[in-house]
Amino acid sequence: MTPANRLGNPFICGGPVPPSHFIGREREVQIVFDQITSHALGSVAICGDRRIGKTSLLQYVSHPEILQEWDLSQDKYLFLFLDSQSISEFTPSRFWQRLLTLLLREKKGNLPPEMIESILAREEIGHADFEIVLDEIGRRDQVLILLLDEFEWVIRTDEDNEPMTRDFLSALRALMNRTPKALALVIATCRDLHELCRPIKFIGSPFHNEFTFRRLRPFTRTEIDQLLDNALDGTGIEFTPEERDYICSLAGPHPLLVQLAGSTLLEFRMQGLETAPNAELIRTEFEELVRYHLSQIWENCSREEQMLLTVLALKRWAEDKESQRTHDGPAFERIFNRYERTLRDLLLRGLISQMKKTIAVCPATFESWVLREIRSANEEEFAKRETLMFDLLPSDEAEQVTAVMRRISDREDVRLGRTDWKRIGRYQIIEELSRGSMGIIYKARDPNIARVVTLKIMRLDWETRSKKSKKRFRHEAMSAGQLAHPNIVAVYDADEYRGEPFFVMEYLEGPTLAKVLEALAPLPLERAVDIALQIGDALDYAHQRGVIHRDVNPSNIILLENGQVKVTDFGLAKLASASSSDASQSGVFHGTLDYASPEQILGLEIDGRSDIFSLGVILYEMLTGQTPFPGKHITSVIQCLLSEDPLPLTALRPHLPPELKDILCKALAKDADQRYQTCAELGRDLRKMMVNAR
Amino acid sequence: MAVEINPFWIDGPVPPSCFIGRRREVRKTFSQLTGPGQGSVAISGSRCTGKTSLLHYIAAPETAAEWDLTGDNALISLLDCQLVDHPFNVTAFWQQVLTLFQPHLQDSMGEKLQTLCQQEQIGNADFEVILDALHQGGRRLILLLDNFEQLVRTQVANETATRDFLSQLRALINRRPRTLSLVVATGEPLEELCQTIDFGGASPFPNSFMSVRLKEFSDQEVNELIEHTLSGTGVAFDEHDRSHVSRLSRGHPLLVQLAGHLLFEARAAGPLTTESYQAMEARFREEAKIRGLSF
Q: What is the value of ipTM here, to two decimals?
């Protein structure tokens, strides 16, 4: 190592600032001294975010040199600093014992030691014992100023400790109000004293009524400059105005963050490195250094504040990165208008900044942290963040906000089709087969048993991410997994990957009925009926086991080379719609419209008869080459489906057996009660018709 | 070729005289300890990245003296928390700490310590007496606690005791006048280690520390280590050797030493061939595995 005479980094990156380096807070210092020198001998409750400088302030106002500066005689004013956290397993007796020990050791006010010692000799010390000491202090025309740091340590509001806390605080309050007044408190807490004391059921006046409140605000620019000047004094290094601006942009007005930013920048300067070319490196180091402190600031924010900070960060991200999504703007503005008061509080705490009409999370490092936390959140944490939005915002606004949350995180991969995954869960992706509104289908390989499978990863709406929906997903997967029928695609596995549910199914080679119809419709009668019968068998088997398909359509029917028909995707439509009632409420329909039953369209409760209607539509289409309720627009399809009869078969294909008309009429009845009640019934009629036709 | 003692250090912490690199970490630590805040430092780093070596280096009188910390103004002592009696109790911890300092204190103070050590219970108030006495003598205490995770027991049964202990420790280091500074070393960063501890709304323990994370050595540090270690041995590593060490170790301090150690051995045995490099690499992997390091 190089020789001595080392230049240390003078910034203070942990623990309180010594009085010699204390900056600003003139107003707060004034309030403390005004209160304790007033005739009323007032008490002060200081609160403020973590690491904002509460301890530094308490240590500053009790420092002998400062008291001298304020002409406060130390013979009269006995300042006693006590960090409440230093009391092991807090009890009032231990508190009084600790105070007396300090008084004795620090020889404050030359109080008779034997008096204190005699009290300390007692096994239990109560406030009445301390009153004796206060009497002596009052008699000597002295005043005891207790500076109690980390005061939340003594405010225990759980059921077991609440009575003890209430009695202790009431006693403390009574001691403060005794005449002649001889005791004043200056307490420091992170949360507001009112808020901390709210759960306590005081019998008389609440403890917090006795205090003048003061919240420690972040630093002004002048105070930041003072802090930097003070730290650099004697180092021979100066920060340029640009470097100071850079520190402010990194740290905002929070004193500790300024210290850390100053320290990081100085480290570079001490190594002879210029700031401008290394700005990004400095930022990276600073971000690493402050990650924990930012998490502390976040923890100290209320749910409303956390929601707003998230929305603000997301808004800026959306504006910067995807200016095309300006339609999110009005929703964000509505949120800000509704939470104007909370925004004002955040502004006062220096956690947001306002430039003209633009508000943003402050500092930029905090904004990056908020976004990074969303990106790196695991499923549980992400769901928590989503829940926060839906708890506090109307659902349309929450949906818009959570949509942005998804876009900035990996969770958007499926939604936007940006998937270049090599592996999903344990499954190795071989190739993408297709993609649709409900998800992406892959050909994959299960390495455990070297089996080729079909893997379907789903795109889901937010509702499906709730715990309830995850339970439903598992339930649906389990139901589908229990279906073992020659006409049903076997489901092997179901799980989640990056929050998206996926199903692993039997891999089949063969076109879908949709593809076949596209090329060959209408189909020969025998083939169409055979396909319909096989679908019917599959549905009947599933219905008997309480499983409804909900989205029977030609894309879900696979035709194998040997003539076998396989129905796939049992239960997936239900999963996608979160629940039938949710779907009706939100007006979202997740089946395939052309094949949906009237009750499905209307969002009513459905049963197996809905699938029978869909099967009727497929049969009609196989025979005629068109769906029975065609329309150019969704509304015309729905209108047709709900109120009109299908075009008669004979008009489209005159040579079909006449019984088919009745069979299709019954399968496509708008009223489920008038429909075939089971697929077996429909199958019986179809088979009978075929016998007659031969 | 004469048999040389292999100068690379592959077992246990590196002695201060052989300590290389970590300039920024050392400066940050001493700046925090000796700066106006006289604060505390939490060093973290994964296995065998040199935390203990760094603590030994900081505690070495020669190093401390460079930062104007001498026996006249500071008592610096290192305690490996793995040596703290189990099951852990606060009194036993303080007794062990006090025993460490006893030889460095004057007689009058030594007596005080002895009395204190015999007490059934030692709490903050007792320790404060010692700190105040030290302060009166113009000195302060710098306590280096290695393997600090041994004392952060977060299981349900111990959580309250740990919370109380850490809270008291925190109160001690934040006292004015500042007479106690800690330098703790842990594998996980201190804030992660304490994440599950509920400090009852009061300040969490890690808040009072500046954190220093030990990462892999830079190429410059690797070269410096090789240079320093080989000096006076008569053996030199050429460019190819150095890049071989860098490639194998990826800057991990212990692995740099290990790769250097094996290469030194091979070089001492005679000229190196492709085969001997390969054999050395195979041995390196084995030895690294034995030390529980994956790469």
A: 0.85
